[in-house]
Structures
1.
Amino acid sequence: MFYSDSGSTSVEVALKMALGYFRNIGAPRSRIVVMEHSYHGDTIGTMSVGARGVFNAAYEPLLFEVDTIPFPAPGREQKTLDRFEAVSRNRRAAALIVEPLVLGAGGMLMYPASVLTELKRIAETSGTLLIADEVMTGWGRTGTLFACEQASISPDILCTSKGLTGGTIPLAATLSTDAIFQAHYSLDRKKTFFHSSSYTANPIACAAALANVEIWNDEPVAERIAALGALQAAGLRRFHDNPCFSDCRVTGTIAALDLRTSSPGYLAEIGPKLRAFFLERGLLIRPLGNVLYLLPPYCVTGAELDRLYDAIEEAGERFGSKP
């Protein structure tokens, strides 16, 4: 386990661990495989393994090349698996990095656990490491402590941050298998894992994380999460036949739906209008363009969720485009 101070940093650490592992065992690999529409942070390495676009175009000269597999959209899951099998066959890929089950900034895109299970199987066949970026999905967000549990897999490297301290103070951790640890644990100092920062594992942040873990151990957090997931699923039902919305989806405590508009996408002009609309009603809902999502704290009440869904329904009537 290696501590750092943010989700982006935890992923940078993971990428360095993967490359260092293969170098230290004498079988260097240089490629990273990524999933279409993914987001892993805003540092150089994490921008390199995330989707390319307006947000990182200015920094393109700094970014390294990657191999991309398509997002496993419904009915196209096999295309994703086939592409990963193809790019990992030559054993140049050091790691596949994925957001398990839910792609966050890419639009709250969701895919089944069975795909993640198969990606892990293919990775093992080719000796490719699997990095699970659970910065957003970890700590109960998808209904289990970590999303990987639903695929019955253990990643080679796991990144966690946000929920580690309950969102109260910056802390992150990158966990690896013993094999990766042992590849860096040596009297040969050239094999050292060279990474550090001023606030790595600072005691105040660690104290907050320990307090959060105590809550998980002592309180019925799993039951709260299950109840919240049920409330989210129930809240979305009213939109299934609403012509102003499409693609209603939920994974654990994460609910999302798309507002029909003539100009969709992350930078759609409707995004700032929707945010202002919700703020006027005292609600913090941050749209991803025309994608509306609710990722509430676990202490949210049913009445509070009803307020949010009422406002979303009203926003659909005001801003939505019916087919």
2.
Amino acid sequence: MARSVTARSAHRRPATTKLRALVGWLFIIPALSFYAVFVLRPIALTFQYSLYEWDGIGPSTWVGTANYGKVFTDPDLFDSLINAFKLIVFFSAVPVVLGLAIAATIRRITESRLALVARTVLFLPQVIPLVAAGIAWSWLLASTGVINQLLSLIGLGGVTRAWLGDFATALPAVGMIGAWVLLGLCTLLLLAGMSKIDPALYEAARLDGAGPWREFVSITVPSLRQEIAVCVTVTVIAALASFDIIYISTQGGPGNTTMVPGLQIFYLAFSEREVGTASALAMVLMLLVIACALPIQWFAKDGNR
């Protein structure tokens, strides 16, 4: 009797497993369908368009990989890729480094009302639409804006200029706007990570005579490997795919000083009617984003082994 019950239950297990797998697929299929229609299909069409010379309306002409060659040989297109990598310094390095310092400071004063105010103020740029932020910073950085007025008040009138209209300062100025936008997000992510660190580690370090800097370097930073990886990934993608802030503040100028791939793709596709070249640049940008994001994720996973 016992053997027959065991045999029946063993017979039912594969059927139950198959049923669970079927139910699981029924839950997944709607999401996969949306992903295929709104992500995979556009990527496939973009790759297809990149192999043709097309104005978006008339007949297309097969050119193979010529559009990809143009991306790397045309100075304007290639410089836009270089500008995107330059923005990584401002969009990624500045928010992550400052975010670590600010989060560590807030953690030490977490019981005070100042910590709550600081978190709220720092996160405000994430709530403000990027278009509004771009317009506001365009006013602040104008030749008669608040920044130049403050510099003149403290006796630094000689360094005032139209920060977004000067060839030497336009890209750093745009970069600082991006750093301001992303600083709050990085700070809150890192602060959340710090809240999970065991306080006993800090107490043991203090008993061994470690100061605040040694605690920060030896305990805080290593414990935030995952959070730092998330911050770097998000900010690097924001730098490479930047569009709205630059479109509102400089529109790629002066000249092509602040031209980035996202803006270049927009101009090529909708102003110059070079859909094939725009698609090739979009594919190159997607591959660059993947090439930058994957090593960061692998680095974070290796640190948890």
3.
Amino acid sequence: MATPTVGWIGTGRMGFQLALRLLKAGYDVTVWNRTRSKAEPLADSGAKIADRPAALADRDIVFVMVAADKDLEAVTSGEGGLLTGPRTPKVVVDSSTVSAGASARVRAAAAERGAAFLAAPVSGNPKVIGAGKLTVAASGPREAYLEAEPLLKAFGNGVTHVGEGEEARLVKIAHNVFLGVVIQSLAEITTLAERGGVSRAPFLEFLNHSVLGSAFTRYKSPALVNLDFQPSFTTELLRKDLQLGLAAGTELGVPMPLAANVDMLLAQAIGAGLEDKDFASLLLEQARRSGYQVEAENVPVDDGLAPEEQ
């Protein structure tokens, strides 16, 4: 089977790195970004730069990674959008974190033009991509998934087909609800240990070597120890996804008491001015509720995300 040509829409922090992985894997990639200058460095790795999304319609598979519902609909069905010209790609793969409603509308628009549509949200951040540990949940027609699967596998270490429709959107929201519950629990037990006289670095080192340690607890350990809350995912965005998860729970009749409590704590953190900080900053609020001001320990901590060997 011939190697597919690839289009890429959206070269933000994540999109840039994923498009670069496809280029390094040997794919013929043409990219578009609303701010052209953010896409141009990919030309050094062999990418061609398009002037509008519609110019990518002759590609076999086109990926989209944009910020929100309105952006996804604009780059696909808006003026100069991917699905508005005389040609249509064979498969459109959306890796944005958007609502199931917006995804379904774009899926319908693609179907009208004869294109298959995959929802393929990802779990990770640029450093996770560099370590080769990004994961993907994909949903849509299985035939389209099988065409896109080799490219999705180039993103990292795990790709799962979870359904034929919008199921991947729910999987991503459920994943992010779990992020919220786990980080709050981690903040609580770390504060408990510290108030009992155990510094955060050795406590988290112990935890990370135990059966409860995970890639997540390891890569959040430097932030919890050294209070570096440059965002990989902000408190405000985490709350948005918690609320989407709670709404899904209401719709599907699934009680979510832990998630509801974390949503309340996230609201308090946002009220305390932490909306633009990484969600690990929930530690600051947990310490405040425990009657003390946490201090950075300023020690080296391994996050478990060494760059992948080339």
